[in-house]
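[step 3/7] inverse_fold.run input=structure_tokens len=211
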């Protein structure tokens, strides 16, 4: 629950990374991050029948590991810049973030009012290329239904075409050239479904797709 697994596709390669978030309790001492060798070691503490403490270790290897000292800016400089350049070069690229509730997914992607997330940093980088015509849309999946965040959360319907391909109808696309990035991020945060969880008071309750 303390790590945020991040996957992005570069060409035909899959790179799997783990980001460790700061912990609010003592469990953080049970996680050892080795950012040089890209390894996470989890210490599991149990007691046997004689009430003696027994420690066991599990090692997990990733393509990259980022400990809790890495910032969103650090992540962008490490791999986010490459993703932005892929999009500028029209190379299909997927950046997929997953993890348990409270693991830091929203913080990584959307950031806070003071700390920009990777989405903000990516869009600002791409917008520096004046000749790039990039359009985007933003969809959230909540309770097995799709909603258009950039169009007042209007419901989107899935349809199957003659080639058995699923398409989404009436999705609003926006040209990045004509939009203020801070307004984009603010609009997403405002329309995103949230709820109270054990980790925070505004935990994301939907899957977010920005494409």
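[step 3/7] decode complete -> sequence:
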């Amino acid at each position: 629950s303390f790590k945020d697994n991040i996957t992005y596709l570069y060409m035909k390669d899959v790179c799997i990374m783990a980001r460790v978030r700061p912990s609010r309790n003592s469990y953080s001492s049970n996680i050892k991050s080795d950012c040089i060798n890209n390894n996470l070691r989890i210490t599991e503490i149990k007691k046997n029948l004689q009430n003696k403490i027994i420690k066991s270790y599990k090692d997990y290897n990733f393509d990259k590991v980022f400990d809790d000292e890495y910032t969103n800016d650090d992540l962008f400089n490490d791999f986010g810049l490459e993703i932005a350049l892929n999009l500028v070069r029209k190379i299909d690229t997927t950046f997929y973030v997953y993890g348990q509730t409270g693991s830091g997914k929203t913080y990584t992607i959307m950031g806070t009012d003071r700390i920009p997330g990777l989405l903000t940093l990516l869009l600002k980088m791409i917008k520096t290329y004046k000749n790039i015509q990039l359009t985007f849309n933003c969809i959230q999946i909540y309770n097995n239904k799709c909603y258009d965040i950039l169009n007042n959360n209007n419901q989107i319907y899935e349809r199957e075409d003659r080639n058995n391909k699923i398409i989404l109808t009436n999705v609003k696309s926006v040209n990045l050239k004509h939009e203020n990035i801070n307004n984009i991020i603010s609009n997403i945060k405002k329309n995103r479904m949230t709820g109270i969880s054990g980790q925070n008071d505004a935990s994301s309750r939907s899957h977010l797709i920005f494409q």
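[step 4/7] annotate
The chain has a mean pLDDT of 85.
The radius of gyration is 20 Å.
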